[in-house]
Write a structure and sequence with these properties.
The protein is mainly α. The protein has helices spanning about 10-25, 35-50, 55-70, 75-90; strands at about 105, 110. It is extended.
């Protein structure tokens, strides 16, 4: 969670996504990649503000379902291949998922191309990450009677 697209709790959100996926495999007897894709895409939009239009959620879901099916049959070929790919990428310094085709979309859906330097309230660090000048999360909403309103968090399903 290098860029913390999910805010200060990006690591926790990523860990929760991982746990939700594992639980999804344990819960069902049949696993359909399109269902997993939908869940992954929903979390990426809701928790990380990332719109994935490159087909990667389906690619990841298909790979995970195929890996699960193979391992349930006692095979480990895909697992070994994934570990080798991960290790090769680590040795070469490539960060998975950080290709040049990524687009950043702001809250109203506009694609941010990085060329707009008029935003004075956001500063980039030397490493290309956003500076610490972020707005704090909104506080609780209190109604006229003094009760705190329950607010919806990300779009995660259970």
């Amino acid at each position: 969670m290098t860029n913390e697209w999910g805010g200060a709790s990006s690591r926790q959100k990523a860990d929760q996504l991982r746990a939700d996926i594992v639980e999804w495999f344990y819960r069902g007897k049949q696993h359909w990649a399109d269902e997993l894709e939908e869940a992954i895409d929903e979390v990426m939009k809701g928790d990380f503000n990332v719109e994935l239009e490159d087909g990667s959620p389906m690619e990841v879901a298909e790979a995970m379902v195929a890996l699960h099916a193979e391992m349930m049959q006692g095979g480990t070929g895909r697992l070994v291949a994934l570990r080798e790919k991960r290790d090769a990428m680590a040795r070469s310094g490539v960060v998975p998922g950080m290709g040049s085709t990524a687009q950043v979309v702001d809250n109203d859906g506009a694609v941010m191309d990085g060329s707009d330097s008029s935003d004075e309230d956001e500063s980039m660090g030397d490493d290309g990450s956003m500076g610490e000048e972020r707005l704090p999360p909104p506080g609780p909403v209190i109604d006229d009677d003094g009760f705190e309103l329950v607010q919806k968090k990300g779009g995660r399903r259970r």
